[in-house]
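Hi,

I'm pasting everything inline rather than attaching a file, because the server keeps stripping attachments. The sequence lines come first, and each chain or strand is labelled.
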Amino acid sequence: MKSTKRKNMQPEERRAQLLGCAQILFFSKGFEDTTVQDVLDLAGVSKGGFYHHFKSKDELLFGVLDGMAEGVFSQMDLVASDETSSALELLRSFIHLRANYLREHDYPGQVEFFKVMNQDKNLVLLEQFKRRVRTGAMPVLTRIIQKGCDEGTFAVADIDTAAELILFLSTFMDLALLRAIEARGAETADHAAGKLQAAIDMQFLTIDRILGLPDGTTDFGWPEAVDVTMATEPPPPPSTN
Amino acid sequence: MKSTKRKNMQPEERRAQLLGCAQILFFSKGFEDTTVQDVLDLAGVSKGGFYHHFKSKDELLFGVLDGMAEGVFSQMDLVASDETSSALELLRSFIHLRANYLREHDYPGQVEFFKVMNQDKNLVLLEQFKRRVRTGAMPVLTRIIQKGCDEGTFAVADIDTAAELILFLSTFMDLALLRAIEARGAETADHAAGKLQAAIDMQFLTIDRILGLPDGTTDFGWPEAVDVTMATEPPPPPSTN
DNA sequence: CTCTTGAAAACCGACCAGCGGTTTGTAACT
DNA sequence: AGTTACAAACCGCTGGTCGGTTTTCAAGAG
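And the predicted assembly:
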């Protein structure tokens, strides 16, 4: 029998490689439109080899998702276990972390990634990822709110519900952010920037109310946040002078 | 050539029939797990016949979704065009409509339907449906808030953003409702009921803040809402004495 | 009013490429 | 030598296509 060249690797190494290839493909073509064969071709592995490491295509998806979420969660944990900061400060860090995990964590194409992830074809991917983030962030946020209540800073009827709602607000912000990013450079950019600012304001307004804080307490949005978001340069069109 | 009996129908009729069969199957087996062949068998139509009316399986999905959303939207429009009511009353009607469209609109198995729809395998279905509802409900809610601002009842920085956030709150409520429904009959039922009440309270608290209303203005949840939700009897297991 | 006609609409069912996943055997490492 | 890591052929089934067949229905003829 003729046989192609073959390169054995350590299981973890192969796994990582396959996850990497899968991530690239999932986020460009979408999960459904990515064939296992696509992954196979990109990684240079046979089907048998693949199914030796992953028992299904779904497991591959969850693997990718886990890999992405891992870093965020550990950072969150780190933030929340800081005993010296007040609950309010912790909350501030938490929200910024949640809002910027793309920027902090990843390769330069984070914005592109964000856009691709929000396309219709990646609906499954996105929703599955959101769930991971939510379930992973819940305990951390709960702990922070608990601490705030103990301190007497926060006044909340039900901690879990409060935490959950705040995390939902993040989803709301994601949508606003997406719209803003998509409008960058277009003539509607100013309008989009206004909407983004409105969403940010409303987010913090709502958090104040959820936690029983006086108006304006959690105005964590630093002033130039919107400008920063709208300014990330797309590859400058040569027509610009 | 032998030929099976064949029954031609008006296009709309066939379309409706296929949509009906699809709806049943989608919500029992899930979208991905439902084969077009399944629909074919249930409807007694051949593949060619099917693809004469629908150009893809996805179009079938969107057809089902549209059919479901249609009724809600028309009701919403009706509600919002009532000139005699105040904005606050309109909002009340709107929220109740949004919260109860399953109960109002459908066959007796609404709860079952809700549960099935929230299963993991129906993620696409659910999310796609939510989007429809959101985009369809947006203009109505916007109009209501606009009216409230004109009246001087509401005070909102950005109407669209406010409307969007309120609709996101509905999603939040859906989750809470789902948890409650799933806990019915279990020994955690009381706990779940508490959480549901907390979510309801927090929803209205948040809406107050969003619209710039004094605390407690939009306490639209009628007192026995939670009990009603938790009480729907499941088919009583014969092991119960 | 009935009958013919013919084109368009409705429909059938065999067929296909490609999918996720399995199996069986073999090369490579320890 | 035994186990691990992989290859390649294979399988059942899926969504979708295609050429052909049947119904329908309106218009024209008698």
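Residues 142 and 159 of chain A are 6 Å apart (CA to CA).

If the labels don't parse on your end, tell me and I'll reformat.
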